[in-house]
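Progress report, Aim 2. The chain analyzed during this reporting quarter is listed below.
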Amino acid sequence: QVQLVESGGGLVQAGGSLRLSCAATGRTFSTYGMAWFRQVPGKEREFVAAISWGGEDTYYADFAKGRFTISRDNVKNMVYLQMDSLKPADTALYYCARASRQFVILSRAPSGYDIWGQGTQVTVSS
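Predicted structure tokens for the chain:
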């Protein structure tokens, strides 16, 4: 059974950086697109970034463009989210997710993903 485990969250000052990691189990990791979402209490889960199965294509929410970078290592079964120039508004629980089907154009909606990690908290202080 595929599992996703996020790490790398923490407390950082505004303007700082964090690198989130997502470790995936399973032999078919390289055939699925992956994404990062975030959520704050009382709000819907929000798309952050996605990356295609081979890593050639990436997609970002407008707020993430120019500040966040998604990447993957299919040998290590890892997905990363490098976050720079962090703002207090970036404070949220960040989730890693696997696309629900292999080799598909990635969705920005949570419904396009069927396996989720437990989340890692990112807190940005002003």
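The chain has a mean pLDDT of 95. The radius of gyration is 13 Å. These observations will guide the mutagenesis work planned for the next reporting period.
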